[in-house]
Amino acid sequence: MKRIKLTVAYDGTDYCGWQIQKNGITVEEVLNRALSRLTGEEITVVGASRTDAGVHARGNVAVFDTDTRIPAERIVYAVNALLPEDVVVVRSEEVPAGWHPRKCVSVKTYEYRILNKEFPDPVRRRDTYFVSFSLDIERMRRAAEYLKGEHDFKSFCSAQTAVETTVRTIYDLDIKKEGEIITIRVRGNGFLYNMVRIIAGTLAGVGRGYFEPEDMERMLEAKDRTQAGVTAPPQGLTLVGIEYEKPDNSGSGSGCSA
User: Out of the domains of life, which is the source (predicted)?
Assistant: First the structure.
């Protein structure tokens, strides 16, 4: 038995998120189906990030255990032939048996894209949030500075979030504009449910003038979801990648800290 790590990219538009659900098709489901067909085994992947319906990824991570004789680095080629065109495995590799994508120390990077122009662009409707009103990028950048570092982000997560702690660390939060696309890029040690989308919605509110940049400090201190801005829609969000400590492939350890 060996454990295989997959790096997975997908357009989440037509999926009910990553995790298997009763109400529709999910990315996890199509991966399980393709891998089971490939190996002849009953495969169930374990994913690193359970992205929501409509959210995209260029670098989500999943693992599965298998007895297949296919070399780990060749699985990527074989499984892609069995997947729909909106889900692609971009890398496959063997990791130690104890390696777990959600328990290992990691850094995640997300991007949220806003299409800021007078009229919608039908070509970008699946991967951007259309905002017709003018956004002040400099105000948004000043506001973003308050979110960097370790904070209690209770005001910036869904009220239904059930976790032991809402404290997270944001290492970088950058905002750039290229043409009509504003990209909010955030890198941190973990993110709460809807956290990036709420940050994006709040920063857009700052850019429009609904909030002052300094209000971000007040929102953090309040620890109250009603004090932050709206939750931006899912289609603008992409999980860019997840960085892990390098696994120990000697077999002596998992290469990660739970």
Answer: Bacteria
Structural contact between residues 242 and 106, judged by C-beta atoms closer than 8 angstroms: yes
* Residue 83 CB contacts under 8 Å (≥ 6 apart), including other chains: 30, 31, 34, 89
> Do the annotations mark residue 193 as ligand-binding?
no
Residues contacting residue 6 through CB under 8 Å, at least 6 positions apart: 31, 45, 61, 62, 63, 64, 75, 76, 89, 91, 92
Helix axes 137-145, 215-222, angle to 10 degrees: 40
Cα–Cα distance for residue pair 235/113, rounded to 1 Å: 9
d(CA 254, CA 245): 10
Per-residue model confidence as pLDDT tens digits over 8-42 = 999 999 999 999 998 899 999 999 999 999 999 99
| Residue whose structure tokens are 């680095």 | 73
Give yes or no for residue 89 having a pLDDT over 60: yes
- CA–CA separation, 21 and 25 (whole Å): 7
Phi-psi region of 40 (alpha: psi -120 to 50; beta: other; left: phi over 0): left
Q: How far apart are CA 75 and CA 79, in angstroms?
A: 6
Which residues contact residue 249 at a Cβ distance below 8 angstroms, ignoring those fewer than 6 apart? 94, 95, 96, 255
- Helix ranges, the chain (H): 27-39, 72-80, 137-145, 195-208, 215-222
Indicate the pTM of the whole model.
Answer: 0.93
Q: Which residues are catalytic?
A: 52
C-alpha–C-alpha distance, residues 80 and 191, integer Å: 29
